[in-house]
């Protein structure tokens, strides 16, 4: 069995991580895995895990090179002779659409986000089967494209339960991180994600000011890198922190590699995103580490958080509601690891994805 996944690049991000994880698991099952992308930080991992990465420009939107790239992609697919082509973004999907016209290989698409509505995005619905990463995405594409229900399968992104396991945390990192940032004895609230306006860190910071009145030992961690074009936004956040006299309470940690440990040492994790998350991987990962999550009340996170049990929702931009929910998290405890294991595991994602292939194309998948 041969599966080809196509995505624009293999840098940081939930889609990229999901592709790498699926390729690794496919190889474990004896499936021949290929990934086609323009490359990036994670491309070598595909080969390390036993898959095959093919570096090819399925990223550029330049229509003047599209014809030559379609022909080149057709040659690649003819050589591989895959049983399944799995497209995960619109440019690769369009290139496959034209390259595959005479090859007639079965195509699966995964809709990862709330793409702009229009002809360009409609390509994701032209596949033989469509996977959505949340019920919110399913509702979105059915509303705008009237995609047949029988064609769609909702498969949440899977969480690596070896990595996000409270029993497997790096205690040395945790101890050093707490010492460096003077976190011992503090009530720790984390918000993890790139520094962008869409994450609405202003509301998060204002909520910390409110909570500080009741929890004076509060420390908030803003964990994420910043691109050069977002430096001004980062500086505006730092100015807000100074203006509110929260310099002793809010730490900008920059990008961190030990995200599971950050979730585990936190008392609460907050996702204040203005834009609906297609799934909310960080939310699921936090809950797996038995840490409650408070998130804005929209998007895929609504599939994950059970209010009053493992977290709470608040309306976009409402710092008072967010602050009140932070205080309420002190009264809840739960077994998040088993909840995520049952509902959102990587194993579930792999099995459900293979079931889509088998159901749609009557392909027999043999497990070693």
Walk me through the structure:
- The protein is of the alpha/beta class.
- The protein has helices spanning about 15-30, 45-50, 65-80, 90-100, 135-145, 170-180, 200-210, 230-245, 260-265, 280-290, 320-330, 335-345, 345-360, and strands at about 1-5, 30-35, 50-55, 85, 105-110, 130, 150-155, 185-190, 220-225, 250-255, 270, 295, 310-315.
- The protein starts with a strand and ends in a 7-residue tail after the last helix.
- Helix 1 packs across helix 13 and helix 7 packs across helix 11.
What are its keywords?
368 residues, alpha/beta, 7-stranded parallel β-sheet, 6-stranded parallel β-sheet, 13 helices, 13 strands, 38% helix, 17% strand, disordered C terminus
Rg, nearest Å: 22 Å
Strand element count: 13
Could you state the order of secondary-structure elements as H and E? EHEHEHEHEEHEHEHEHEHEHEEHHH
The gross shape turns out to be: elongated
Tally of alpha and pi helices: 13
Instruction: Estimate percent helicity.
Output: 25-40%
Provide mean pLDDT, rounded: 93
Brief sketch in words of this structure:
The chain has 368 residues and is an alpha/beta fold. It contains 13 helices and 13 strands.
Topology (SSEs and partners):
Elements: E1 2-6, H1 14-28, E2 32-37, H2 43-48, E3 52-55, H3 66-80, E4 84-87, H4 90-99, E5 106-111, E6 129-132, H5 135-145, E7 152-154, H6 171-180, E8 187-192, H7 201-212, E9 218-223, H8 231-243, E10 250-254, H9 259-265, E11 268-271, H10 281-288, E12 293-296, E13 311-314, H11 319-328, H12 336-343, H13 346-361
Parallel strand pairs: 1-2, 1-4, 2-3, 4-5, 5-6, 6-7, 8-9, 8-11, 9-10, 11-12, 12-13
Helix pairs in contact: 1-13, 3-4, 7-11, 10-12
């Amino acid at each position: 069995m041969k599966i080809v996944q196509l995505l624009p690049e293999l840098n940081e991000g939930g889609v990229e991580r999901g592709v790498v994880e699926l390729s690794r698991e496919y190889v474990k099952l004896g499936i021949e895995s290929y990934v086609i992308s323009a490359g990036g930080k994670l491309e070598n991992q595909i080969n390390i895990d036993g898959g095959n990465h093919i570096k090819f420009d399925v990223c550029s939107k330049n229509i003047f090179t599209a014809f030559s790239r379609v022909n080149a992609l057709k040659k690649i697919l003819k050589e591989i002779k895959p049983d399944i082509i799995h497209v995960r973004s619109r440019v690769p999907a369009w290139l496959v659409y034209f390259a595959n016209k005479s090859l007639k290989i079965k195509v699966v698409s995964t809709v990862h986000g709330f793409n702009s509505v229009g002809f360009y995005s409609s390509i994701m619905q032209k596949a033989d089967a469509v996977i959505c990463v949340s019920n919110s995405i399913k509702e979105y594409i059915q509303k705008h494209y009237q995609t047949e229900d029988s064609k769609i399968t909702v498969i949440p992104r899977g969480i690596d339960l070896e990595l996000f396991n409270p029993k497997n945390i790096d205690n040395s990192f945790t101890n050093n991180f707490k010492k460096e940032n003077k976190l011992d004895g503090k009530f720790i609230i984390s918000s993890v994600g790139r520094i962008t306006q869409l994450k609405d860190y202003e509301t998060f910071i204002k909520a910390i000011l409110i909570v500080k009145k009741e929890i004076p030992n509060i420390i908030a961690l803003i964990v994420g890198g910043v691109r050069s074009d977002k430096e001004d936004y980062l500086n505006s956040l730092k100015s807000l922190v100074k203006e509110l006299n929260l310099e002793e309470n809010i730490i900008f940690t920059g990008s961190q590699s030990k995200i599971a440990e950050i979730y585990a040492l936190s008392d609460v994790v907050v996702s204040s995103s203005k834009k609906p998350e297609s799934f909310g991987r960080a939310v699921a990962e936090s809950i797996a580490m038995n840490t409650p999550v408070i998130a804005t009340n929209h998007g895929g996170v609504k599939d994950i958080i059970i209010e009053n049990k493992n977290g709470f929702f608040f309306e976009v931009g409402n710092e008072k509601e967010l602050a009140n929910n932070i205080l309420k998290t002190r009264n809840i405890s739960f077994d998040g690891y088993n909840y995520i294991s049952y509902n959102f595991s990587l194993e579930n994602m792999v099995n459900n994805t293979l079931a889509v292939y088998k159901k749609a194309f009557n392909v027999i998948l043999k497990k070693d």
